[in-house]
Structure formats: C-alpha cells, structure tokens
Amino acid sequence: MNIAILGATGKFGKRLTSKLLENEDYKLTLISKSAGDVFDENEQITAKNIDASNLEDLKEALENQDIVYCAISGSDLPSIAENLVEINPKRLILMGAVGIYNELAEGNGSEYNVDNEPPQIPNTKAVKILEDSELDYTIFRPGFLRDGDEDDYVITHKGETPKGYYTTFQSVLKIALEIIENPELYFRESISITRDMT
Known about the structure:
Elements: E1 2-6, H1 11-20, E2 27-32, H2 35-38, E3 45-49, H3 55-61, E4 67-70, H4 77-87, E5 92-95, H5 121-131, E6 137-142, E7 144-146, E8 154-157, E9 166-168, H6 169-181, E10 189-194
Parallel strand pairs: 1-2, 1-4, 2-3, 4-5, 5-6, 6-10, 7-9
Antiparallel strand pairs: 8-10
C-alpha cells in the first residue's frame, strides 16, 4: 500500500511515519519542505522537499498513492485543501482541530472554539473546502496533543459536543491505522478524538 504523509517532519508526522514503518507492506512518500533533509530514503521511504501549496509539485508527488494523510497546520492549509480537491486522491485523512465548528462546550474548552481563537480559522476554512467537495475524506479533530494511552479517547461526530480538548498522539495513530486498513471507516465524516474531560 502506498501512503503519503503531508507534514511528515512535524510532531505528529514523525510519529505516524515511525508507526507505519513497522509494516513492511507500507511504502511511504514523506512530504514537507524539509522531508528530504530529515529522512533517509530506502525501500520503504521516498522523501520529497515540497511545499504542499504548490499544486504541480504536490500532484506529481501524490501519483499512485492509496491514502494521503495531511498533518499540516497553519495559514496555508486552505490552499493545500484546494490543491487536494484538485488532485482528488483515492482516500484522504486531514487533521484539523476540535473547535472548528464552535462545538466545544462552555467550561470545557469553549475558549478554543474558532469564534474565540483566530488561529483556528484556517482549519475551519480547509475543512469546509473538503466538505463541499466530492473527495473521499475523513476529518480528524483532535485537541491539544500529548503522549498517553491509545485507548484514552472518545469519538464524537459533527454536530455532537466533544468530551474534551486534549488528545493523545497514540489514540490518533490508532484510528489512523484503522482507517488505513479499513478505508470505509468514517467515510466522509468529521470526527473529534479527545480524552473525556466531562
């Protein structure tokens, strides 16, 4: 299986790369502005120094990929989302953040809702671009990422109130692997993955 990771040199991207390398059947294309400087290429790894906001470079890098995981954050995310819609990968997982729909409850993280947290705006815009498309996507909405138990999470769906605003790296990795093995899971859904803080 061919898997591309956008933002492969970030905190989550590196963890996802390490986890996927445990399975020799996975061939990884690692993409970031510095991926080729960070990762050594081998029979499992192809590393590309690419700015994902460059459509032509990204399109070439994502040829023949079975799954694309976008772990990029920041102001370029909406333009990257537009590029992904144009490229139309077979299956996409995009990591947004909890609060992009103003879904966090008062007293349980509402200060991180997009209306109160301007840095969330690119996440909200990017997710709307995907939701308005015909892409085969899943949106992840984790909270602040920390190390912890892979089973310490509750999934809530769009329109439901998340249980918290902290998330373990390990729980997101677990659900990502479940989707990679079963691409029909959470098909065209936006799910929050958070620890229960209620």
